[in-house]
Amino acid sequence: FGLGNYIPLEIMKTSDGIDLVMEELVRIEYGDLA
User: Fold this and answer.
1) In whole angstroms, what is the distance from residue 14 CA to residue 33 CA?
2) Domain of 27?
3) Which residues have C-beta within 8 Å of that of residue 27, sequence separation ≥ 6?
4) Confidence (pLDDT) at 31
5) How many domains does the chain have?
6) What is 1-34 written as a DSSP string?
7) Other residues' Cβ atoms within 10 Å of the Cβ of residue 20
């Protein structure tokens, strides 16, 4: 899980990066980080 050491705005320059950030936000929303 997580984005590693990447900055979300840098990752979001590509469609794959947007998907990664969105997946991480969903994990945070549903508490899957614990």
Assistant:
1) 24
2) 1-34
3) 1, 33
4) 85
5) 1
6) ---TT--HHHHTTSHHHHHHHHHHHHHHHHTTT-
7) 18
- Checking if the pLDDT of 2 tops 80, the result is no
The model's pTM: 0.69
7, 19, 4, 11 alpha-carbon torsion, rounded to 10°: -30
Mean pLDDT rounded to a whole number for the chain: 85
- CA count, 13 A, side-chain hemisphere, 16: 0
Q: Tokens at residue 27, please?
A: 């994990």
Paired tokens of 22: 């969105």
- Rounded-to-integer distance, Cα 9 and Cα 6, Å: 9
